[in-house]
Structure prediction request, 260 residues.
Amino acid sequence: MSTSFIPARRFGRATLWFLAPLLLLLAGPLFALAFGKASLQGDWRTATHRAAGLAPDPATHPEPVVQVYASRAFAWRGAFADHTWVAVKPADADHYTRYEVIGWYGGGARPVVSVSSQRAPDAEWFGAPPRLVRDLRGSEAQAVLAKLDAAVAAYPYPTTYRVWPGPNSNTFIAYLGRSIPELRLVMPSTAVGKDYVPLAQIVGPPPSHTGIAISLFGLVGITAAWDEGLELNVLGLVTGIDLRHPGLKLPGIGRVPGDG
Prediction:
């Protein structure tokens, strides 16, 4: 047999070793598309932004409220990622204020951080229903509110937005979690961009402050924490296992069972 086939065979094996993990990472996003968790279709101009009824009515809930929400990102991005935001209501306030990063607000050094009371706290994100990620009331919410404005003002990327690997909307909310330990936030595993941190912070706490996270610009990293469990990040896609509340975390799918 000619030895000319040996390099080709080795090349084929090397390609297989490269493609197999990549296909496994993409299996979840493809599943999300196939089963309607995300869609390649959609018109942002006609997408709905209806309130989901998850936020307490200020008229009947005078106590402070802090809530973190997640919805599937718009169109094909939803196969890979969520969009996250924070909605808050101080004691006796008659409305909520919503904090989030919105990419198309940027350009020309314009800020991408939105602080608004115009959108419902639990509104759909361009037709995608919201999920409640964190819900704090009373003194727990007040402890977060006391630090929130300073944390928002200190966000290091106020005019920068990149869909991948970050900084993006999930980078912002994860940053608030790292800046405010009282929030004890566990970001959804499908919040691509949550692990984007400056090089000087390659090792540090995850948003929950219950363990340790190592991340290189959100492209590759590992998290080991009591609340997050064990997460492996490859190219922003997270695979993991949660031992505290037994479940798996899969790219594009999220937490199984449940979502988180």
Residues 5-256 form one domain. DSSP finds three helices and twelve strands in the chain. The chain has one domain: 5-256.
